[in-house]
Design goal:
binds NADP nicotinamide-adenine-dinucleotide phosphate, 10 helices, 353 residues, binds guanosine-5'-diphosphate-alpha-D-mannose, 38% helix
Amino acid sequence: MKKALITGINGQDGSYLAEFLLGKGYQVCGTVRRSSTFNRGRLEGIYRNTFDHHVNLNLEYSDMNDSSSLIRVMDAVRPDEIYNLAAQSHVQVSFDTPEYTANVDALGTLRMIEAMRILGLDKTARFYQASTSELFGKVSEVPQNENTPFHPCSPYGVAKLYAYWITKNYREAYGLFGVNGILFNHESPRRGENFVSKKITQSLARIKLGLQDKFKLGNLEAKRDWGYAKEYVESMWLMLQQDKPDDFVVATGETHTVREFVEEACRNLDIPLIWEGQEAEKRGIDQRTGKVILEVDKHYFRPAEVDILQGDSSKARRVLGWQPKVTFKELVKLMVDFDLRKAKNESREILID
Ligand code: NAP
Ligand code: GDD
């Protein structure tokens, strides 16, 4: 039975990857960090009850800022495959916490692969690094592929650039089987609530049911290449099954603005949306009620923006045999449907202790 270690297992990708690997018969260990609230909700598909156990899955406390905890867990598990997904993954938050982000995302990756060396796991285990299309930042070409120059535009992007290069450096210097998956934005019902896709689908579903009046967004014209997270985790696994370690872009190849995401979500909810005003004064209005349901707020604009991301994943398609199936419209629909079901439950059951 193969053993996998996933850092950040209770994140969006970590939870899908855990399900995927368990389905392949792996024994999985995931790292979680202590929090004042119990944040294992995304693992509910595996653990039906809060204090449940799964015969092939165990969780260990660890933190990317704490080398000793990483060494302890790696030594206890001695995994065949390591998926480093843990990160401070929010771009805007990285402008507010740049040092912390660098510590977790950049040095945390170094701590992981140095721990592999200390324990001799660099000879036996394979390492996946969660790299990102944010590396391309101020893009020099559209679409972006593995050879497009990097120009990160945030402390998050810069920290991830270090992680990208240190993984590559350990591959070249020590022969580590280390790969970078350069994944473009991928979303799902499990997406964190302060990322734009989830913020849109959750807010509009609640507005539809009368649980909320309006919500606020920043830059509506940024373009992203949005795919479905559940499909993207398979590419991570495929990268570690190759004969040679290499880096891969994983993307749909399509790009859409944030505004188009809002419009598609409204279509799904049968909200007749019209726009009024320009740029920072722009507002989205429900034509049926005449009410403002969306305002642009400068608070959500970033000090530097990545204007357009569109990936060329032909290498992943050719070498890994991976390709996305869920389209942009299907992705928006599955997120809207989920958030509508969730909002319906919320409207029935508001518990106050
Ligand atoms: P996510 O939902 O934000 O999950 C991040 C995970 O990292 C969570 O489990 C989080 O734990 C954990 N974490 C954060 N800080 C930590 C620390 N100091 N020590 C240990 N664990 C820590 O992110 P995601 O969307 O699943 O993304 C997974 C990875 O892929 C990230 O590295 C992200 O940067 C990268 N990536 C994501 C995308 C995307 O579009 N989703 C695209 C490219 C790359 P808590 O729950 O305790 O916070
Ligand atoms: N979060 C957020 N909130 N973004 C907003 C908002 C808002 O209210 N309004 C507009 N946006 C715009 C952002 O300015 C950005 O251009 C776009 O929506 C997407 O923002 P996010 O959903 O926060 O994602 P991201 O592209 O910055 O970063 C995600 O994708 C990266 C891969 O390209 C994260 O998952 C990163 O961890 C990942 O590396």
